[in-house]
Amino acid sequence: MRCLLFAVLAVMPALSAVAQDFDRGLAAYKRGDYATALEAWQRLAEQGSAAAQYRLGVMYAHGIMVDKDYRTAREWYEKAARQGDAQAAYELGVLYELGRGVWQDERQAAYWFQQGARGGHGPSQEKFSRYERFLR
Predict the structure, then answer these.
(1) Which of 22, 40, 80, 125 could share a disulfide with 117, CB 3.0–4.6 Å?
(2) Domain range spanning residue 124?
C-alpha cells in the first residue's frame, strides 16, 4: 500500500503539468490563437492524452490551422475513443455515418455510437437508438 501511495505521489506533478498544458491549449483555442492550441495539443496527443487527441480530431475535421482532413481526424478520434472519450466516439460514429474519410458504414457508426452512449454521452445515446439494429 505504501508503494502504491508513493507511486501516485510521484506521478502527480507530471499529471498536473499535462493538465496545465491542455488548459493552456484550451485557453488559446478560445481566444482564437489556434496555432498555440495546435502546438500544445499535438505534443500532448502524441504522448497519449485522449482529451488532446479529441481536440486535434476536431481541428482536422474542421480545417482549423490545418488542412481539413477527415482521415487524420478519424485517426485522432479513434485514439481518443479507444481510451474511453465518449465525445470522440460520437464524432467517429458521425464520420462512419456520413462516409467522411472512411467508407460509409452503418455497422461501424453503430459501434462507435454505442461506445459514446456507454460513456453517458447524450447525442451518442440518441444516435445509437437509431443504429443499434446494425449490431444485431
Answers:
(1) 125
(2) 11-135
